[in-house]
Amino acid sequence: MKTLRQIACGEEVTVKKITGEGPVKRRIMDMGITKGVNIFVRKVAPLGDPVEITVRGYELSIRKADAEMIEVE
Questions:
Q1: What is the domain partition of the chain in residue ranges?
Q2: Could you report the per-residue pLDDT of 10-41, keeping only the tens digit for each?
Q3: Is the pTM here over 0.90, yes or no?
Q4: 50: cis peptide before it, omega within 30°?
Q5: Across-strand partners of 3?
Q6: Is the pLDDT of residue 9 over 90?
Q7: What does the DSSP assignment read for 1-45?
Q8: What is the dotted CATH code of the domain comprising 2-72?
């Protein structure tokens, strides 16, 4: 099982599952990140946050803690 946080810059993956609960899961889903959607990782900050991604044509930044809750394949 891989999470979005483990994906290298320049890779594209498909969301398998979101493991967060409550408001955190809702925030992730409100960004358009849902099961089956493709995510392209544009940039990963070397030391801390964020992970910059492209989802459904939108460029987003998410925290690494949130990226840990997104299982991908």
A1: 2-72
A2: 999 999 999 989 999 999 999 999 999 999 99
A3: yes
A4: yes
A5: 71
A6: yes
A7: -EEGGGPPTT-EEEEEEE---HHHHHHHHHTT--TT-EEEEEEE-
A8: 2.30.30.90
